[in-house]
Amino acid sequence: MEHAHSGSSSTLPGPPAPRRRLAARSTEEVFAALLGEAGVQVDGKRPWDMQVHHPQTAERILATGSLGLGESYMDGWWDCEQVDELIARLLRARLDERVGTTTLLVQGLRAKLLNLQNLKRAWHVGEVHYDTGNTFFEAMLDPYMAYTCGYWKDAGNLADAQEAKLDLICRKLGLAPGMRLLDIGCGWGSLMKFAAERYGVACVGLTISREQAEHGEARCAGLPVEFRLADYREFGAAGDQRFDRVASIGMFEHVGHKNHRHFFEVARRCLTDDGLFLLHTIGKKRRRTPTDPWIDRYIFPNGDLPSLGQIADASEDSFITEDVHNFGADYDHTLMAWHANFEAAWPHFADGYGERFHRMWRYYLLACAGTFRARTTQLWQIVMSPQGVAGGYRRPS
Length: 397
Description:
The structure is a single chain. By secondary structure, the chain is α/β, with parallel strands linked by helices. It is built from 16 helices and nine strands. It has two domains: 82 residues, no CATH class; 223 residues, Vaccinia Virus protein VP39 (Rossmann fold), CATH 3.40.50.150. The chain has a seven-stranded mixed beta sheet, sandwiched between helices. A two-stranded antiparallel sheet has the order 1-2. The termini are far apart. It is an enzyme of class 2 (transferase).
């Protein structure tokens, strides 16, 4: 490093000045600088600032990224008044692409090399997530128990948003009395119950959760609704099951890119030639993005969000895409409503589930809300037809 002349009359060069060594920044300083790029402070006073309680928090998060961020929150190493806004800010600053890349690489290779959603593995998510308990989900969800994104265009509360979503699906499918509807991944039967009550439709639903099937049957008693405990690949293999309409609401995220084409083949073989198929799914903007490792480990084992390109590639031999509707920002509102219900009901579940589960579920709901707020995750409703709707398909307003 050069320095200014001191004014000496000597013409002989003096000894070189010693180089100043740049002090290596500590892990905490690197971490704080990264958060600063997202407008977040460590131990700051704003609701999205991170309050750190454990000295190894920065090291853990920098080493393992999303997995470390979620696990350290579960362990009580840090807190934040608005986890949802914290996550949204981190994603808008694209810090997820710069931290914990080794963990993401392993996750990506795992998904590439293995069929994580094969027939044997497919039942795992039902056992881990959806069998958490019907009473638990009843407290968190709306009266129809719709565990998918609501439609908030004209809705002011969760129940109205979910009814609006269910009615939108029915209108997009053009349901009419006497039709038969197949719901692939029917959950507790929210769509089937609504379609049977409001549109006079007979329904068959497929689920891989025994808890969902038993509870759904009780909720739909007296309606022309049937639950089948079956994987979609096993249904209608002989070609003897045909329906006027087919829907899949919030299940495609568990299918996996290696099975996408087979999924659409199953939907096609179950649909009449003049029928319609509606796919409602969360999606990612780039196909090469791996599944979030924390979500995969703790919430939805072996999940795999599709890209729009992957859906188009897998469906082109079976369907014509008639309509694509993205209302992903509505999932932010839905998740925040679920979180409010969850926290209000938590005292009734605290003894049975424990505080670590409390922090895990809170982080899941709020972090996911943050991803939709940042618009890094999408929600699509896609209407398809086997041969193209004569005169063109018109989305109902």
